[in-house]
Known about the structure:
By secondary structure, this protein is α/β, with parallel strands linked by helices. It has 12 helices and 12 strands. It has 3 domains: 4-85, Winged helix-like DNA-binding domain superfamily/Winged helix DNA-binding domain (Arc Repressor Mutant, subunit A), CATH 1.10.10; 92-159 and 261-292, D-Maltodextrin-Binding Protein, domain 2; 163-258, D-Maltodextrin-Binding Protein, domain 2 (3-Layer(aba) Sandwich). The protein is 39% helix and 21% strand. A 5-stranded mixed sheet has the order 4-3-5-12-6. The protein has a 3-stranded antiparallel sheet with strand order 10-7-11. α8 (200-208) links the parallel β8 and β9. It is globular, with a radius of gyration of 27 Å. The N and C termini lie far apart (118 Å). The model is unreliable at 313-323 (pLDDT under 50). InterPro entries: LysR-type_TF_proteobact-type (IPR058163), LysR_HTH_N (IPR000847), LysR_subst-bd (IPR005119), WH-like_DNA-bd_sf (IPR036388), WH_DNA-bd_sf (IPR036390). Belongs to the LysR transcriptional regulatory family. This is LysR family transcriptional regulator.
Amino acid sequence: MPEWSDLRHFLAIAREGNLSAAARRLKVDQTTVGRRLAVLEKELGARLFDRTPTGLRPTAVALRILPAAEAVEAEALRVERLASGEDMRPSGPVTVTATDSFLVHNVMPWLAGFQERHPEIELQLLSGYEALSLVRREADVAIRLVRPQEASLRARKVAAIGVVPFASKAYLARRGPVRWDAGLQGHAVVGYAQDSRRWPESKWLDVHAAKATVAVRLTSILGLLQAAREGLGVALLPAYFGHLHAELVPLRDALPELERTVWLVFHEDLAHNARVRAVVDFLAETIGAQAEALARPPSRPRKKRAVRPSRPAARQGLTAPRR
Length: 323
């Protein structure tokens, strides 16, 4: 009978498509992954993957056993979660996943306080736009902008993020005021590259800044932020960046159609785990305290009204008092 360890390596290869990516996911070396695959193939008496120019492709045998292997994985992970879910000690590792921008700006500045309260909890922060699986224990807690659909996951709404078009003061001084009714004609925008072209923000720019030129395309929020700060063009950014960087000027109020909800997500089997509970409570408190700044940018500068010179009394239709 195949061992769970071998099936675990098999599943990683099937999901990643090559040995090196599977090794990174499992946090082992590539040689170990290849060796475990060879052991499993020998025990089953069948080849599980064909080598192709684009990677490892599952054979017909592999596709047949894949659902059974996933069922074994689900039960093994459930045993792990149930065991750790009753851990009442506020100590040990907790893995949190979120975007790099959110971790840098909205979590890390408050970590010193958490560490003082819970010195025995070791936080591991994983940044990126790929949604790690809480069911497969790739992370314990996730900060997500989309509510998960899995029934086994608990989601807690903690804030909303407003999205606002910004430009730097230097850019506006150089290029002049922005007119949205003209499709940003005569202006430049900071655009989106590769997969981020599918983001709602990218589609919004396609409509509302149709006549603008694209100064640069990027794939990360931190990259968009830096490009805007350097004066490369107008960029759609989270509202709270306006509170952090005085050189950024909000060009409109937060756009309702682009608002994102911040969800704290964890698996229901870990609901009573003391260290996970401590991390979730800390994040809820910390992010909730930032709710106002997350939702709305600083007040936009008001346009100065031109002061009209006073008219002579006769021109105003007034008569001089009689003596």
